[in-house]
Every structure is written in C-alpha cells, then in structure tokens.
Amino acid sequence: MVVALSIAGSDPIGGAGIQADLKAFASLGVHGTTVVTAITSQNTQRVSGIFPVPEEQVLSQLEAVLEDANVDAVKTGMLYSAGIAKVVAKRLKSLRLPLVVDPVLVAGVGDSLYSGDLVAAIKKELMPIASLVTPNKSEAEKLSGIKIRSGADARSACERISELGAEAVLLKGGHFDGADVKDLLFIEGDFTEIHGPRVDVKAHGAGCHLASYITAHLAKGVGLQEAVVLARGNISDALSMSYSVGKGLKVVHSLATMERDLLRYPVLVALDEAVKALEGMLNRDWIPEVGINFAYALPHARYYEDICALRGRIVAVGNEARHVGCLEFGASRHVARIVLAAMHFDPGTRSALNLRYSEENLSKLRASGLMIASFERRKEPEGVKTMEWGTAQAIRKAGKVPDAIFDRGDVGKEPMIRILGRDPFDVLQKINPAMLLR
C-alpha cells in the first residue's frame, strides 16, 4: 500500500488540516499517516484557540510512524512554531523522501496560525530539504520578501524562494485576479503556467487539499510537474463540489474526483438506453446530413473528457435511424460544446442532441410547447467556437436555458436544431410529442 505522511494541525470542523489531508490521500488510493503539531479550536467562521503540541511529542509521533511504516512522501502544513519546524526538519533530513511544504500561516477565515519566528525557521530549516513549496500570494511575499504586484514580481518571488533551497516552487493562483486560475510552477530554472477553471467559491481547506493531492501523486511515483497538473484537476473538482457544514465558508469536497469517476458508468448506461429509445422514435425527417450526436455530461463537467457521447453518429438507414460507433467520454466536440456552454448558465443542464432543421420540424417543436431560442451564424465573431458562442447568445437572448436552440446555417454550414435537457430522458420527453405530430 502506498503511504503518505501529513505533519499538520488538527481542524475539528474537518475541512482543513490533518482531517482534510487524510481524506485527500484516501481519495487517490493512498494510506494517510499523521503527526499532529497543534490542536486548534476553529470552524468555518473563525479560529478561537490554538494549543501547540509539545516538541518532544511531535517528535515522538514522527518516530512512531517512521519506525513502522514505509512512507512514500511527506507533506507539512501548519507547524505553528519555529521549535516544531526545527524538530520536524531535523528528523526529515535523513529520509530523502519527496517533501511538499505548504507554508501555512493564515487560516482561510483570515486568522493567524503561527507564532514567533516560524517564517525564518521554514526558510532556514525546511526550504533546503523541500521537493516543492506551495505558497499562496501572501505566503510567497513573506518567504521571498517581495511585494507581488505583477507577473514579473511573481516570477521574482519564485526565484527568491528557490534560492532558499527548495527544488521547486508552486505559487498558487487562487488569490490573483483573472478569468481562470493560473498557478506558476518554477522548477529547474523554468516557469510553467498551470491553468484551471476559477470556481466562484471561497472554501475552507483549499490550500491543504491541493498540497495533499500533490503529495499523494508523488507518493504513487508520479513526476513532480505531472503531480501538480493532476492535483490542479483534483482541487478544481473539489471546489466545484464544495458544500456547507457550518455558517461560514464552504468546505472542500475531498472525494470529488473519486465521486465523479464513480458516476461515469451510470452516465454511460443512461445515455446508451436513451440512444436506443431515440432510434425507435426517429424517422429520416429529423436526421441531419451530418447525423445526430447525443451527449450527457458528468456533474460539474469542464472538459470534453467529462462528457459521454457517440464516437460515430445516428444516421438514416432507409427510413429508420441507426447509431454508428460506440459511446465514449471525450467522443464529441460539437454537441459537447453545447452542453458545456449551457452548464455555464445552468449546471443542471447536462444533456443535448442535434436534429435536422426544417420549418416543419421547428413548428412541431413549438406546437409541443417547447421554449425555443436561436442565433445567427453570420454574426459569429472571428476566433470563437460556433457552438459555445451561439449557445451562449441564444441563452442570453432567452434569459435562461431554453429547451431548443436553432440556427438557419450559413455558407457551408448546415442549419440545425439542438435540444437541451437535464438528462437524456428529459431530452427525449421534450422531443417525443413533436415527433408524434403529423
């Protein structure tokens, strides 16, 4: 069994600290061990008390783990005092294990989580043995002594921190402005920007989780840069599915990636059943020249790989419909873009298919009571993806996600109707009455 070690404080609300680390490790199939550095009284609103564990007891816990388990990677979080940092660093020096240092100084609610000259101790004792240090903007400023106001400042701060001895620096982008999150990784003298979607939520324990996901991937033998990229995906999932347990900040959903992966099979099965049902409903009047694709997304989908669709198409064979190709995640671009664009406005709209455009088909859909919106392809700006732009245009015009979106095509572009729903069976229920009309 792969084993990771977290050396951090205890969070009684279970959103950060060792409680979060253990859940994050487990979500990636890694057994978590712990050394508690401080017992805190905190929740999603405030930190009301901190009791540091005596240094000799911190060392005793560390020895107990190391003498019994084969640890594959280590993560440090809240260390609280310079004394604890020194004890931990002295024992870890001889291990030669991947070490992720999350220089926790302030809780997500804004309260301080350290005392005295901890920053100096981290710089002197832990940086020289760190495989990776993961500061946010404020922590990077304290470690580097550089006020970060620009991208150039951010790069200088990473270089300064690296000069303290850390093999790599990940400056987290969550506290910087921008449409998406851009983490800055400095490794072996090179900078790499690692992008992720910005989730509009401030959650308790996000930094702990990111560092823990990285540690778990390193423990499993993944290379450093790949571990960071994978962990960015994990934390994006976790933030997207964050939830409330108290009256303050939301709590990061540690098991989000695993939970989403467990839904892949039910999503595929549901779409398969819907495709078979659709074949029995269709005649060639509803099948466009390019064929039909049918898509169904995982909750909180962000990428094509989160959306199941046909690798081929549903096509006309005589007057009947037959699907060509199998169902697969990442198989669609066209219909997947429609779903992703719709989910931006309403995360519950997770399914769509395309149908042949004709005035007769449009009239039947209107007669069945569907809400219908449209866009004009000839007005499409340069440099945009048609389905993302067009779907967004139609939704904004309608004021909400409609049941159907159509366009009348353009030069070399077949006109099309798209039906949207919460799941494949919702889509089928919307089109069934229209297909029964004569």
Sheet with most strands? 7 strands, mixed
Estimate the strand proportion. 15-25%
The domain count comes to: 2
Count of alpha and pi helical runs? 14
- Write the CATH architecture name of the largest domain: 3-Layer(aba) Sandwich
**C-alpha Rg, in Å?**
26 Å
Task: Kindly report the average pLDDT value.
Answer: 91
Feature tags:
38% helix, UDP-N-acetylmuramoyl-L-alanine:D-glutamate ligase, single chain, 20 strands, 14 helices, alpha/beta, seven-stranded mixed β-sheet, L-fuculose-1-phosphate Aldolase, 438 residues, elongated
Summary?
With about 450 residues, the protein is α/β, with parallel strands linked by helices.
What does this structure look like?
There is one protein chain. The protein is of the alpha/beta class and 438 residues long. It folds into 2 domains: 3-254, Ribokinase (UDP-N-acetylmuramoyl-L-alanine:D-glutamate ligase); 263-436, L-fuculose-1-phosphate Aldolase, CATH 3.40.225.10. 38% of the residues lie in helices and 23% in strands. It is built from 14 helices and 20 strands. It has helices at residues 17-27, 55-66, 82-92, 118-126, 137-144, 151-162, 206-219, 224-240, 256-262, 264-281, 334-345, 359-367, 386-398, 424-436, and strands at 3-10, 31-42, 47-52, 73-76, 99-101, 132-133, 168-171, 180-187, 190-197, 203-204, 250-251, 294-297, 307-310, 313-317, 320-324, 327-329, 351-356, 372-374, 404-407, 416-421. The strands form 5 sheets. Strands 16-13-12-17-20-19-18 form a 7-stranded mixed β-sheet, sandwiched between helices. Strands 3-2-1-4-5-6 form a 6-stranded mixed β-sheet. The chain has a 3-stranded antiparallel β-sheet with strand order 7-8-9, sandwiched between helices. It starts with a strand and ends with a helix. The model has no long low-confidence stretch (mean pLDDT 91).
